[in-house]
Automatic annotation (TrEMBL):
Function: Guanine nucleotide-binding proteins (G proteins) are involved as a modulator or transducer in various transmembrane signaling systems. The beta and gamma chains are required for the GTPase activity, for replacement of GDP by GTP, and for G protein-effector interaction.
Record-annotated G protein gamma domain positions: 1-69
Name of the protein this chain belongs to: Guanine nucleotide-binding protein subunit gamma
UniProt keyword annotations, A-Z: Cell membrane, Lipoprotein, Membrane, Methylation, Prenylation, Transducer
Example GO biological process: G protein-coupled receptor signaling pathway
Subcellular localization: Cell membrane
GO cellular component, one term: heterotrimeric G-protein complex
The UniProt record lists the keyword Membrane: yes
Subunit structure: G proteins are composed of 3 units; alpha, beta and gamma.
Molecular function in Gene Ontology: G-protein beta-subunit binding
């Protein structure tokens, strides 16, 4: 689609996108970073990548080995 548009049309679309983005509310990283850190620490106990999956609930556990005879 972008190949069919002229450079002027592409620039116009970019300006429209930038106008939308400038309206987004922004927050200081000092505030949001702390909020993200607090959330991650609070949810760490529920994260299977950190605590692992119990063997009885692991759907990817090997059911049996391969036997070559």
């Amino acid at each position: 689609m972008a190949q069919e548009l002229s450079e002027k049309e592409l620039l116009k679309m970019e300006v429209q996108q930038l106008k939308k983005e400038v309206k987004n509310p922004r927050a200081l990283i000092s505030k949001t970073g702390k909020e993200i850190k607090d959330y991650v620490e609070a949810e760490a106990g529920n994260d299977p990548l950190l605590k692992g999956i119990p063997e009885d609930k692991n759907p990817f556990k090997e059911k049996g080995g391969c036997i070559i005879s």
